[in-house]
Specification:
Layout lengths: L4 E7 L2 E8 L4 E5 L10 H7 L4 E5 L8 E2 L8 H15 L5 E6 L1 H12 L4 E7 L10 H18 L1 H12 L19 H4 L2 H6 L1 H12 L6 H6 L4 E6 L8 H11 L3 E4 L5 H4 L1 H13 L1
Length: 281
């Protein structure tokens, strides 16, 4: 199978690296974390048998450079980047969109701000903690992450963040060492890129994105186009709760994908198969 066609797209304050595979209706994949477009490498080929699959490195990550490296990040601007890609690759035709984690937050804003451009959104564990009844507790977590980042750096801040996401929420506990999680070789090879993007992710994306409050009434009105999804192993963890809360509020099914928050990485074949079914439902 041939590799993706790559391109660069100038957007406000940044240059986006994007990749396109396959043919058919457009499916835009929005990555979370610091993995960028490469986080979809294990599933994009299978999806491209049915769709024109586009993904990209979000602004400031990997090959997508910022004009001002110190620029503050906003969900609305990241959603604007996704819109520009839709306009480039699917002009005049609504597209299907999948977003994971912080990318799922972007997909929610894209849906509410530009519903005519989106046919269906699958949002996997968007950590929109502002919708939760105990949002104040999670604001305190983000404040601790920010303070730790400023005083001690990215890795200690990531440890605080990871601990706050887990079931027990034990503050300050370090995340499990990578060796305890068996990843496919292709995923393991991306570790260097992921680590390189960690300071930007934990310092800029986490505080801005987890402070974002979606328009819940607007999402409810558009819920026929929205699929809220979680990892089947994520129950009780913080990233699971907002999607579960919103699904309950909208009277919608919560679709459970294989694995946990990073099921896309740990169970790529099964994840991609269910994503295809979900997009067609």
């Amino acid at each position: 199978m041939t590799g993706p066609v790559t391109g660069k797209l100038r957007v406000n304050g940044a240059s986006l690296h994007y990749e396109v595979r396959g043919q058919g209706p457009l499916l835009l994949l929005i990555p979370g974390g610091s993995g960028g477009a490469a986080s979809f490498d294990a599933v994009a080929g299978a999806l491209a048998e049915h769709y024109t699959v586009a993904t990209y490195d979000p602004r400031g990550m990997a090959r997508s450079t910022l004009d001002d490296p110190e620029a503050e990040q906003r969900v609305a601007e990241h959603a604007g980047d996704a819109l520009r890609l839709l306009d480039l690759l699917s002009p005049g035709e609504p597209a299907r969109v999948f977003g994971a984690s912080s990318g799922a937050i972007v997909s929610l804003h894209l849906l509410t701000a530009h519903p005519s451009r989106v046919e269906r959104v699958v949002a996997h564990e968007p950590p929109v903690v502002e919708v939760l009844p105990d949002a104040a507790e999670h604001r305190a977590l983000i404040a601790r992450v920010r303070e730790t980042f400023e005083k001690e750096g990215a890795m200690p801040a990531m440890a605080v963040f990871a601990a706050g996401l887990r079931k027990d929420g034990a503050e300050g506990a370090a995340p499990a060492p990578p060796a305890q999680t068996q990843l496919p070789p292709q995923a393991a090879a991306r570790a260097e890129q992921t680590m390189a993007g960690l300071p930007y992710f934990v310092g800029r994306i986490v505080p801005a994105f987890m402070s974002y409050a979606p328009d819940v009434d607007r999402l409810a009105a558009l819920s026929d186009r929205l699929v809220l999804a979680c990892g089947q192993d994520s129950r009780g963890e913080l990233p699971y709760r907002p999607a579960a809360y919103l699904a309950g509020r909208f009277g919608a099914e919560l679709v459970h994908f294989p694995g946990g928050h990073i099921g896309l990485t740990t169970h790529p074949a099964e994840f991609g198969e269910l994503l295809l079914k979900t997009l067609r439902a």
